[in-house]
C-alpha cells in the first residue's frame, strides 16, 4: 500500500467512525424504545444474548462464570427466563448428569427482534437513498460482513 492510499484509508476510517457515532446518537431514542419494550431485566437479556450465540447452550455453572455471578443468582435468572419460554433446560447428550440451558425459538426471536430494532438498516431510511448510494452501501456492508466472518473460527 502506498502512502497516498494509506492516508486516504485513514481519512475514510476516521470519517466512517464519526458518521457511525453521529448515526447512533441520532437513532438512540428508537433503539432505547425497543429495549424498554422487553419484559427482561438487563441480566436476563445478557444471559439470553449469550445463549443465542451458543448453539449447544451452556450450563448454569458456565453461565454464572461468564456473567460473574453466583450459581444461585444464575439459577434464578434462568428460572425467570424459562418461565417466559425464552430458554429451556435439557439433558446433555454426552453426559446425562449435566443439564444444558439453550435459547428457545422465542428467546432467539426476542434477541433478533431487538437487533432488528436498529432503525438505520430498516426500509424507511434505506428507501430514501439514491440508487447509487444504496448500491455502494450494500457493497460496503457485504464486504464488512465478509471481513467479520473471516475472523470467526467456524468459517
What does this structure look like?
- 67% of the residues lie in helices and 6% in strands.
- It is built from 7 helices and 2 strands; from the N terminus they run ααααββααα.
- α2 packs across α4 and α3 packs across α4.
- The radius of gyration is 20 Å and the shape is elongated.
What would you say about this model in short?
The protein is mainly α and 155 residues long. The protein contains seven helices and two strands. It is 67% helix and 6% strand.
SSE sequence, one letter per element? HHHHEEHHH
* Class from helix and strand fractions: mainly alpha
Largest sheet geometry: 2 strands, antiparallel
Assembly type of the chains comes to: single chain
- Average of per-residue pLDDT values: 87
Fraction in helix: 55-70%
Relative strand content = 5-15%
